[in-house]
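CO-FOLDING WORKSHEET

Operator: S.A.
Ligand of interest: flavin mononucleotide
Run index: 353
Mode: holo prediction, single chain
Checklist:
[x] sequence pasted
[x] SMILES validated
[ ] output reviewed
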Amino acid sequence: MAEPIFSLAPMQAISTLAFWRVMEKRGGPDVYITEYFRVHVHSTPERKILASLNESDFAKPILAQMIGTEPEYLVRTAQQIQQMTDCAGIDINLGCPSPRVCGRAAGGALLKSADLIREIVESLRPVVAGTLTLKTRVGFESEAEFESLLDLFSGLPIDGLAIHGRTVREKYQSEVHTREIAMAVEQLDIPVHANGSIVTVPTARSMYQKTRAAGLMIGRGAIRNPWLFDQIRQSFHNEEIYHPTLADHLRYVEDLYEEIASTSWQYEEVKHVQRMKKFMNYIASGIGGGEFSAEIRRVQSANQFWEVCHRHLGGSEPLPEEPTADGKLFCGFKELQDQTGYGPELNRVQCPT
Ligand SMILES: Cc1cc2nc3c(=O)[nH]c(=O)nc-3n(C[C@H](O)[C@H](O)[C@H](O)COP(=O)(O)O)c2cc1C
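OUTPUT RECEIVED:
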């Protein structure tokens, strides 16, 4: 049976070498994408993102993502990144909804300017040696814009397109528009990666069934459950699905803590705990009825951090199959798996057509 390839979504302050190494130990995706390099007149490629590219010790392709608006500076930065690293290609961010980014007409705001997108891609194509890909949303204000975006994408010299199935306005808080992703799969002759609210095996299978995308891109769901890529592969191969326990989850947090410390320029306890909190928002979802998340948010020291983690993690209980659908961190995944015949529990997942 055909099977999609898997990528880990680019995520600021998350998609770093430390996180990738921890993911790799648990199977990992087939492709990684860096957090974005900010590109403007005075920019030089950020050292810490270059380090993630250069110091990776696993043999999987990594794409370097850039965010910016001026073709000239994007070209300059793409050339620099390629000279300084072995990246497999360059990806352009057309989806970031942050007001600071959109206020500078970059990220998701680029979707309002088809001519500029064309100019950027055409300027980059001759200088990008590997793959040149775009990561988009289904529109800025409304998914009704997607048809004309598709016309634009179909005429561009790109090698792939990742689609986060929400509009820029919807940020992360809505259902995922799978119909538009399916249209892109149907109409474009390049690989399309479907992205948005894949958090479990059933949601991955639903996304695949609804879109038939060549790839599935996963972000927050993989922070919460780093075994997710392997679980989805097991489902596609009709193999028994590995169910992590809360003891596995504790080892994951320990591993992440150590990797982040080992890849930091210098270990400072309070800063380190703050960095871990970014991950813990997602990791704690679905565990301890909200108490775990609330307690982790209040910790200030490593001792307090581990006291809370040891109280909520560890033991042979299984990691809950789903995160909490709270609208802020995780939403839209219940709707994604509706009407497909894939049940909410991993155990009920089988391999139909
Ligand atoms: C903390 C965080 C940081 C993100 N940073 C980026 C980024 O640097 N570049 C990008 O294209 N998308 C970024 N995204 C969007 C994700 O790549 C992805 O499209 C989105 O989270 C939906 O996928 P998911 O539901 O699997 O998380 C970010 C998302 C989150 C939650």
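REVIEW:
The first helix runs from residue 17 to 24.
Residues 246-312 form one domain.
[x] output reviewed
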